[in-house]
Specification:
single chain, alpha+beta, Hypothetical protein Ta1206 fold, 4 helices, 6 strands, globular
């Protein structure tokens, strides 16, 4: 099943995408206007190679988990927006919406 949901972050809205996979944790992505925060299923090295603004979290099963998790990796474009390893997912999303 695929779930797409609006996520209110302060006074702005991001889009949450959740893909339930068989015998697996879900694939999660929170998309803002200028970039996204992704779960560990997606490859940060590929995101860097294609020059996108992306940050990665891991060990998450819900959108709330993504927002509460610490950022584990960022692309250079995400760093330019102020996203840093160790910050909370919610703070990263706020910089992207």
């Amino acid at each position: 099943m695929i779930n797409v949901a609006p996520l209110k972050i302060d006074d702005k809205v991001a889009v949450g995408l959740r893909v339930d996979l068989p015998d697996s944790p879900p694939l999660l992505l929170i998309v803002g206007r200028t970039g996204f925060v992704m779960c560990g299923f997606l490859d940060i090295d590929v995101a860097e190679k294609v020059n996108v603004t992306a940050a990665m979290v891991s060990g998450v099963k819900t959108f709330d988990d993504v927002l509460a998790a610490e950022i584990r990796a960022v692309t250079p474009k995400a760093q330019m927006k102020g996203i840093k390893v160790g910050m909370k997912g919610e703070d990263a999303v706020k910089l992207l919406v």
